[in-house]
Write a structure and sequence with these properties.
Dna Ligase, domain 1, Nucleotidyltransferase, domain 5, five-stranded mixed sheet, 16 strands, globular
């Protein structure tokens, strides 16, 4: 049950920085404030804030507009410099497994373990010929990436309480669609890149980056004159759009195959779709037909009340563009 408190989610996107504040009370939540600014050009690269002072000053302007200075905030580390892996370890105390996972990580991390911050999430306990084991989901990120995000929030005037990874925020937001015993996934199609996150019984077990983003659709619209600059006016059956969709399907199929190999035959049952790319007409049906899985756009409106006086465009923005920020805010009121 949610306690009566407010929390703010901060999503540092490659094109827009988004903030949303929610209030949780009596098991329900409602959106109090939200807004976004364009990401300062060249200052956030693949999730890494290269100039935290400059970005913090721009973010501070959004805080002043929303009157959110001093707000308790949850944000996320993202991008290809966040490394994940499913590991099998001897069943031990959690701290001992953290040390064992870090030791294993020296064999596959592309950077020194002295330069990363890490954590693990137990997935399941089992027993084999070698004894009792625990399967854990390992996450590592560059310390500099976390330090720069913390500095950005300090300059802006936010009280950063927690740093997460985006996949966990999306699970919090869509937990009703992702609940149950079946293996389910979330496909977030962002501005520059996308990723597939897979959950088993509510636990994150797989994340893979996909080299495709909405920028490809906008470039197609600019070159062809289709869609009037609005993703909703595109359709997956249009030849130009379908060519781009084949790229998504190819990348998604490779990710699904990699998951099957890594998970020793576990099969995904359905995909929840979010991000700006979910706006494209018939994208649910197209992906469902091509990959042979149920695909549905994420829906959080049964657990989060939208503001009463918002425009149709603002509602659409919240549904498609704010899921990460909303999920982060919700993790702060759990």
């Amino acid at each position: 049950m949610f306690i009566s408190r407010t929390s703010t989610g901060l999503d540092m996107g490659s094109q827009y920085i988004k903030l949303v504040q929610v209030q949780g009370r009596k098991g329900k939540a409602r959106i109090k404030k939200f807004g976004q600014i364009e990401t300062p050009h060249g200052l956030i690269e693949n999730g890494f804030v290269t100039d935290p002072d400059a970005v913090g000053q721009e973010l501070g302007k959004l805080l002043d507009r929303l009157k959110l200075r001093g707000a308790k905030t949850v944000s996320a580390l993202s991008g290809q410099q966040v490394y994940t892996r499913l590991l099998s370890l001897p069943a031990m105390k959690l701290d001992d497994m953290r040390h064992a996972a870090l030791y294993q990580a020296t064999s596959f991390l592309p950077i020194s373990i002295d330069d990363v911050t890490t954590d693990i999430y137990p997935v399941r306990y089992f027993e084999d010929d070698e004894g009792k084991k625990c399967e854990v989901f390992f996450v590592a990120a560059r310390k500099a990436q976390a330090e720069n995000l913390i500095r950005t929030c300090q300059v802006a005037g936010l009280k950063l309480e927690r740093l997460e990874i985006e996949s966990l925020a999306l699970h919090t937001l869509y937990h009703q669609q992702l609940s149950g015993d079946k293996v389910k996934g979330v496909l977030n199609i962002g501005a520059q890149r996308s990723y597939l996150a897979i959950f088993q019984q509510g636990t994150l077990v797989f994340v893979r980056s996909i080299g495709f983003g909405c920028a490809a659709f906008y470039q197609y619209m600019q070159e062809s004159g289709a869609g009037d600059g609005e993703l909703e006016k595109l359709n997956c059956q249009d030849p130009g759009v379908e060519r781009l969709m084949r790229d998504i399907v190819s990348e998604l199929s490779r990710s699904l195959e990699y998951f099957r190999l890594q998970s020793k035959g576990r099969e995904l049952s359905e995909i929840v779709l979010c991000g700006g790319g979910a706006r494209v007409g018939d994208i649910e049906g197209y992906l469902s037909r091509e990959v042979g899985l149920s695909v549905q756009v994420g829906d959080f409106t049964s657990q989060i009340q939208l503001p009463d006086s918002i425009t149709a465009k603002e509602k659409s923005d919240l549904l498609y563009d704010y899921p990460v920020a909303l999920g982060l805010a919700m993790r702060g009121v759990k």
